Amino acid sequence: MSSTGGGVYRSSDNGDTWEHVSMAGHGASSFTLDIDGNLLAGTQLNYFVVYRSEDNGIIWQKILSGHAVTSLAVDEFGGIYAGCDSDFGPSVVKYSENNGLSWSSLNSGFHPNASITSLSISPDCI
Question: The pTM is what?
Fold first, then answer.
């Protein structure tokens, strides 16, 4: 997670050894899969971005910027939720219903200094 290290690492032997594959210095803080099985990564150091990778983490495309992303979740319909840290702006959950093409804020009821550190999707609430 440091600004000089960090990034995405991959293990092919159940975690015995690790190989750095991409995003050095990005401070990746959260990962999930989108509805198509592509990797999503949230970052909270230096870049404040949500990225998508369609090739298992080698090449990344920016789909949301300007927020220190601490958590990610995807609902059964493909909606992407990004929980954000209030240390770098307002505390919000960003939401995209169109695979990251556009985003809206879901922040009603949050304390202004709250940090969204974990997200979970309940099927009863969708």
Answer: 0.82
